[in-house]
Design a protein that fits this description.
With 344 residues, this protein is α/β, with parallel strands linked by helices. The protein has a domain at 2-95 and 237-276: Bacterial extracellular solute-binding protein, family 7 (D-Maltodextrin-Binding Protein, domain 2, 3-Layer(aba) Sandwich). It has helices spanning 2-13, 35-51, 72-78, 110-121, 126-132, 174-182, 195-200, 211-216, 243-248, 251-285, 295-318, 323-338; strands at 22-27, 56-61, 83-86, 137-144, 149-152, 168-170, 186-188, 206-209, 225-227, 236-242, 289-291. A six-stranded mixed β-sheet has the order 7-6-8-5-9-11, with helices on both faces. The chain has a five-stranded mixed β-sheet with strand order 2-1-3-10-4, sandwiched between helices. Helix 4 crosses helix 5 (126-132). The longest helix has 35 residues, at 251-285. It is globular.
């Protein structure tokens, strides 16, 4: 019955038919105006429609019109949606290996994460073969927010990592929480919209977020200091098409979509990093202290990140998953991305 209801909804809310040979239905859970939608999703739609000369159209259903974030893998696998917003963190039981791109420490920019992850998930990549293909989906483009920083409230002077010991910092769970614990910081789980009240009422001392998210959640006022140039984890997403739908597409449309994925990865990651830089400047202009950790603190942070990455890989290995292989594949791909050659 759910499938029938969803199919009816898609028909009901679909945009008017356009003169296109092929129309693909695409959905996500992002609210209208979200930085991901404006920086990557809509530009990708414009790009593929333009490259197809009107042969291909995308009907886009944002803001949970067709499901919650956790639903999009199954919606795409079953064909109720052609293209879905697949966040591995929402379906970790089916896509545990992709969390390697969300681990803290390794990368310092959105471009490093996106180029590395894209090389691993597109056809022929390690994660494509080990995780996406077995799930019957194929990434068309990927998103990674800039690496998360510490967004701090009234915590006093931040002279180093040790000054944050015992502080309560919101984290999204998983590796982020483990990293904070390794630094003697208390991780707190809560939804992003709850951070503002928790910070203003002193329930938490800060949060792990990208700089570009501070304004979105109206956190400028309670924020007194932020770190810059660190990596306390991030979030990756792959807008993916069902393999059966992919196989039904003409070869030239498949080629077009592959090319668009390569182009969008480079343009969107550059846009994210530019926006992150502007956001950092705006925070500084607002009187917020930019924290640059010294060499000794950086050693402490690297040690904590390496420890968490090793434990993450080992825990997957113990469950019969290729955690150590995933970590090696990611680090090798990251080296290639930094050298300017993200291809497999």
């Amino acid at each position: 019955m759910k499938a029938i209801a969803l199919g009816a909804l898609l028909i009901a809310v679909a945009s008017p038919a356009r003169a296109a040979e092929i129309t693909l239905r695409m959905g996500d859970s992002l609210p209208v105006g979200h930085v991901i939608s404006e920086t990557a999703t809509k530009p990708w739609i414009d790009l593929v429609e333009k490259k197809s000369d009107g042969r291909l159209a995308i009907d886009y259903f944002p803001a949970e019109q067709v499901g919650k974030a956790k639903d999009f893998l199954s919606l795409t696998q079953t064909g109720l949606l052609d293209i879905g917003y697949i966040g591995p963190g929402y379906v970790s039981e089916k896509m545990p290996l992709s969390a390697v791109a969300e681990l803290p420490g390794a990368s310092r920019t959105s471009c490093e994460v996106m180029r590395t992850y894209w090389s691993l998930v597109k056809e022929g990549g390690w994660l494509f073969e080990h995780e996406y293909a077995p799930n019957g989906i194929r990434p068309l483009f990927v998103i990674a927010l800039p690496p998360y920083q510490m967004i701090l409230g009234d915590v006093g002077a931040v002279t180093g990592v040790e000054a944050l010991r015992g502080k309560k910092i919101r984290a999204s769970g998983g590796a982020q929480s483990l990293t904070l614990e390794a630094l003697g910081i208390v991780p707190v789980r809560m939804a992003p919209p709850e951070i503002y009240e928790a910070m203003t009422r002193g329930m938490i001392d800060g949060a792990l977020l990208a700089h570009i998210s501070v304004g979105s959640y109206k956190l400028t006022a309670p924020t007194t200091a932020v770190t810059k140039g660190e990596n306390f984890g991030t979030v990756v997403v792959a807008y993916s098409i069902g393999e059966r739908k992919w196989d039904s597409l003409p070869e030239d449309i498949q080629t077009l979509l592959k090319e668009a994925g390569d182009e969008l990865t480079l343009s969107a990651c550059a846009a994210f990093d530019q926006k992150e830089g502007r956001a950092a400047n705006e925070l500084r202009d607002a009187g917020i202290t930019i924290v640059d950790f010294g060499e000794e603190d950086e050693k402490v942070l690297r040690a904590a990140s390496d420890k968490i990455a090793g434990e993450w890989a080992a825990s997957l290995d113990e469950r019969g998953q290729a955690g150590s292989e995933a970590l090696t594949a990611f680090r090798d791909a990251l080296d290639r991305a930094r050298a300017g050659s993200p291809e497999q």
